[in-house]
Inverse folding.
């Protein structure tokens, strides 16, 4: 009887040893697998970091290669930074969105020209808001031309602030971006609006020339002729136009005429604001 018990005990010991050996082998195999996997994970992480660094460097290079411009506040022209093309003009359209902003945007789209549409707050009824959204969707810059187009020097500082900040907030609600550019009605910048726009990180922008409000240029043909052949046309000219029927009808001729003279058109996105 004792022999049987001893034999049984020995069998249990053997089985236990086999089981322990199997566990140990499993542990060793698992550790080996981890040792193999860890370098692979490290290599993958390194590759991912290299890819991200490569993308960052590529983006930085692309940004460096852009021809940036800035606004010269002495004559309100657009001047190149470093190696940007000097023979350029900028299209700006005030009093948007009245009745012809979309038509003007369609013409500019067809011709591959970008512009700044300077918006008046009192024009932003439901349809006006729809037009601003459409202009932004088409890739046009939306600028601030005050809520009510007043003579700013006639207003108190609080009223001047309201004219600019209130419109900024409305535009932000419409397109998710604050305007980068401010144009004072009648070009009337004041000491206070100079301080305020600097505080808001906005660039003031008057103009080089414009004619579409003068009695002699309320028809497409004479307007197109003067805009292309104006004595004030120069490198970096900041062209002032308005949301008007005759301007919308003249716009294509104006663009073609300036291109024939060798001018290129600045994309407002390339104008530095900071």
């Amino acid at each position: 009887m004792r022999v049987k018990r001893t034999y049984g005990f020995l069998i249990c010991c053997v089985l236990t040893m086999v089981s322990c050996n199997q566990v140990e082998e499993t542990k060793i195999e698992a550790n080996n697998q981890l040792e193999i996997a860890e370098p692979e994970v490290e290599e993958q992480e390194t590759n991912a970091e290299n890819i991200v660094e490569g993308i960052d460097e590529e983006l930085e290079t692309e940004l460096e290669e852009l021809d940036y411009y800035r606004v010269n506040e002495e004559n309100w022209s657009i001047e190149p930074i470093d190696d940007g093309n000097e023979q350029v003009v900028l299209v700006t359209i005030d009093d948007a969105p009245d009745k012809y902003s979309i038509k003007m945007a369609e013409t500019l789209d067809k011709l591959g020209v970008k512009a700044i549409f300077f918006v008046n707050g009192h024009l932003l009824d439901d349809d006006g808001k729809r037009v601003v959204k459409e202009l932004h969707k088409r890739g046009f810059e939306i600028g601030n031309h005050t809520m009510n187009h007043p003579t700013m020097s006639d207003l108190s500082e609080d009223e001047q602030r309201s004219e600019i900040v209130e419109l900024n907030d409305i535009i932000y609600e419409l397109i998710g971006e604050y305007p980068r550019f401010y144009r004072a009605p009648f070009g009337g910048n004041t000491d206070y609006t100079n301080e305020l726009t600097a505080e808001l990180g906005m660039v003031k922008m008057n103009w080089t020339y414009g004619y579409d409000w003068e009695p002699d240029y309320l028809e497409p043909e004479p307007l197109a002729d003067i805009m292309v052949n104006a004595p004030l046309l120069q490198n970096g000219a900041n062209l002032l136009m308005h949301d008007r029927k005759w301007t919308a009808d003249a716009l294509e001729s104006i663009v073609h005429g300036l291109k024939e003279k060798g001018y290129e058109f600045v994309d407002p996105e390339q104008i530095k604001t900071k």
Notes: The longest strand covers residues 88-96. The two ends are 99 Å apart (CA to CA). Residues 1-65 form one domain.
